[in-house]
Specification:
about 30% helix, about 750 residues, 19 helices, 6-stranded antiparallel beta sheet
């Protein structure tokens, strides 16, 4: 008996679908099942397609492509329609894709298979029924969308594995998962779920030649489905004893393929039988593809993070040994996006004199080149400082070094034929001019004396012993690398016991839409708060504020920029790492009382600021006025603050106008709140004493002495060995008190 007669006897038809010619060959039984006369026929593809339900037809292409990729049968359940659009019957098609290569090298497929009618269960029966369309497919689509979103959001290998373990597939959920990776010619387990610790031992280091399903999947790039334990024992008898102890009855091993390369395998094991229908295989294949992409992204992200961390750690120094009488803390936060590397840095350098230097800087840019220049510049600054050069000389040499490092090449970056030379483009990029800001502070830990040289960098901030914060103006020059011959004047002042100095880059100030003014105001609120003070301590009866806990203060400063408090709009938190952040805190500890000595008389800490205004810098008078206002920010009478600012401005202006030297200003606020005394001295190198004059109505000078007589509670002139010192005092009083002018 012929095969066709046997198939016809069991109501099974044969068909051959030639995709290249667009024709379908049917035997008599296949034609009958499609609602055609029961005789062999060759029909155009369109005529056969019209017999299938449109929804079912859309599934055929995906099922065929899946069978081609896996080298398996294409199985589908299809509804047959008549010319009026009514469903005649439901058939199951099982076909084998056969590859046909044409003479021109193109590849097409021919499907050869069978069609057999299947009975639909009647309502009320318990027969198993899997609908062709409806809830299952909608659940599958929703599952794949959720799985894709969850895997796309996973940022590390561990997160990807957690997402894979939590996937609940519609209708069939595996209870055991394992992800295998490839390293050379060895197979290892990256992660697993549904197994006990240690179960991965026999599979953790397996040669690819092993007769194990995952190894074969990696070798061939094709999925393996084992619906029953008998299938497992028959195909992989050597590996069956290893799998038998887990009490699973069905297994699916799928390749993890990215860009045509098999990077591993994924195993899904089931305690309940799974037939692995085309729909189920389609779901597993789609999940495997998404899982492979997620793992690849995670590997790349982790490699970049490892590179970033290693690069930054190799370039960012440790703060070094503890300094007697000083406490130091520092933080560095890279910018968001990319490799998260940038040009900000800080350093602590021991000096030959027994002092130490603190350096903070910012190279232009947030890319790899900025990080490379930062590393070179940091080493250069450390070398110059270690040679014993003064702060101004260190920055001058560093500026020449950076300018030479970024000098443009003399060669023509274009080739002779007029085309752009790629090597020249790269060389031009890595030699394009860049600048860097820098602040260099040399500190004497014994006396607290600081010598500051500044190259276009933000000024330091000082938190005084009573908690008041002042921005400390310092002399400065151009950023490094702009002018190799630029000078960098030095500013000297003293960090008093209990005071803290903050150095930072502009990323801490301006991130989050702030400018310099609003950014400083935000940081001042953090510096003046008591949330970072030593636990259990606070301001005492006379106003001594507990010393800041530097590590906590450093964290709070960064949190003010990156934390929830930095977001001024509702909605999800956004990454505000617009720029690198570097911050260094230096605190001079208060002098301890020697054992056996009596307690000192309580006194509120003196609030003091010292400034120098050079002849060539008259614009710094505005900074002097601002310093006085900040010094008296909590003064009881605002009118007295205005009077002090007016007198200071007049005194400093007179020095710059009537002498050839610089003006040295010292301002101190002494005493208890509400009863303090402000003393301001302005010294210069001239021996000429001020005298009282009667200026006319249109006169532009001669009012300085008159102002002090009217506004100050006391004033005077103290001759010195070289020059003189003009001073005035104001006694704090409430707004309702007597006005010192009248």
């Amino acid at each position: 008996m012929r095969t066709e007669d046997v198939l016809a006897a069991i109501a099974t038809g044969l068909w051959r679908w030639d995709n290249a010619s667009g024709t379908v060959t049917l035997d008599g039984e296949a034609a009958r099942l499609l609602g055609l006369p029961a005789e062999p026929v060759v029909l155009p593809e369109v005529a056969v397609r019209s017999r299938f339900h449109p929804v079912d037809w859309n599934e055929i292409n995906g099922i065929v492509n899946l069978a081609v990729a896996e080298g398996t049968l294409a199985e589908a359940r299809l509804r047959i329609m008549d010319v009026d659009g009514r469903v005649l019957r439901t058939v199951r098609s099982r076909s084998k894709p056969v590859e046909n290569r044409a003479a021109d090298g193109t590849t097409d497929y021919e499907l050869i298979g069978t069609i057999q009618e299947i009975a639909e269960p009647q309502p009320g029966t318990t027969a198993a029924h899997t609908p062709i369309t409806g809830d299952w497919r909608r659940s599958r689509e929703a599952f794949l969308l959720d799985a894709g979103r969850a895997l796309a959001e996973a940022r590390s290998t561990a997160e990807v594995l957690r997402v894979a373990a939590s996937l609940s597939m519609p209708g069939f959920s595996p209870d055991g998962l394992a992800v295998f990776g490839v390293a050379g010619d060895r197979l290892s387990i990256i992660g697993h779920h549904g197994h006990d610790p240690g179960d991965e031992g026999p599979f953790s280091d397996m040669p690819l030649e092993t007769n194990y399903p995952a190894a074969e999947v990696v070798r061939t790039g094709r999925a393996i489905y084992l619906p029953t334990p008998e299938d497992y024992k028959r195909r992989f008898p050597a590996a069956w004893p290893l799998a038998q102890r887990f009490d699973r009855v069905s297994w699916a091993f799928l390749p993890l393929i990215v860009a045509g390369r098999t990077m591993g395998a994924w195993m899904a094991a089931f305690k309940h039988p799974a037939s692995f229908s085309p729909d189920e295989r389609s779901v597993l294949t789609t999940v495997a593809r998404m899982l492979a992409q997620a793992l690849q992204r995670a590997v790349v992200a982790e490699s970049e993070q490892e590179l970033t961390t290693g690069l930054q750690r190799s370039m960012m120094p440790q703060l070094g040994p503890e300094v007697p009488g000083m406490r130091i803390a520092a933080r560095y936060v890279p910018t968001g996006g990319g490799l998260q590397v940038g040009g900000d840095w800080y350093d602590m350098i021991p000096l030959p004199s027994g002092r130490f230097a603190l350096v903070i800087g910012d190279v232009q840019g947030h890319d790899v080149r900025a990080a490379g220049l930062m590393g070179q510049l940091r080493i250069a600054v450390r070398a110059y400082a270690s040679e014993g050069h003064r702060p101004d000389a260190v920055l001058s040499r560093a500026s020449r070094f950076l300018a030479g490092l970024c000098s443009s090449p003399e060669s023509d970056p274009y080739t002779d034929d007029g085309g752009r030379d790629a090597d020249a483009d790269a060389d031009s990029y890595f030699r394009s001019p860049r600048f860097a800001t820098c602040l260099y502070v040399e500190c004497d830990p014994r006396t607290g004396t600081l010598e500051v040289a500044r190259a276009g960098h933000p000024d330091p901030a000082i938190r005084m012993a009573d908690g008041t914060v002042l921005m400390r103006p310092t002399a400065g020059g151009l950023p490094l690398g702009i002018d190799p011959e630029s000078d960098y004047p030095t500013t000297r002042f003293t960090l008093e016991p209990g005071e803290t100095m903050m150095l930072c880059t502009d990323g801490l100030i301006e991130t989050g839409g702030h400018d310099l003014d609003t950014g400083w105001a935000r940081l001042r609120a953090v510096l003046e708060s008591d949330t970072h003070e030593v636990p259990g301590a606070g301001a005492d009866a006379v106003g001594h504020v507990a010393p800041p806990h530097l590590e906590r203060l450093a964290d709070l400063l960064v949190q003010a920029v990156h934390g929830p408090s930095s977001h001024h709009t509702t909605g999800p938190l956004a990454d505000r790492r617009e720029d690198d952040i570097a911050v260094v805190l230096l605190c001079r500890e208060s002098a301890e009382r020697p054992p056996g000595t009596a307690l000192p008389t309580p006194a509120r800490p003196v609030r003091r600021t010292v400034l120098t205004v050079a002849q060539v810098e008259p614009e710094r008078i505005a900074g002097v006025r601002q310093q006085i206002r900040e010094l008296l920010h909590d003064w009881a009478d605002p009118d007295q603050v205005d009077s002090a600012v007016l007198m200071v401005s007049e005194m400093v202006t007179n020095v710059l106008t009537h002498t050839d030297g610089d003006a040295l200003l010292v301002a101190e606020a002494i005493g208890e709140l509400g009863a303090r005394r402000l003393r301001v001295e302005v010294a210069d190198g001239s021996d000429e004493l001020p005298h009282k004059r009667q200026p006319g109505e249109m006169s532009s000078s001669g009012r300085g002495v008159l102002l002090m007589e009217m506004l100050a509670d006391a004033w005077g002139v103290d001759p010195r060995g070289e020059g003189k010192s003009i001073w005035f005092e104001l006694h704090e009083q409430s707004k309702t008190g007597a006005d010192p002018v009248f």
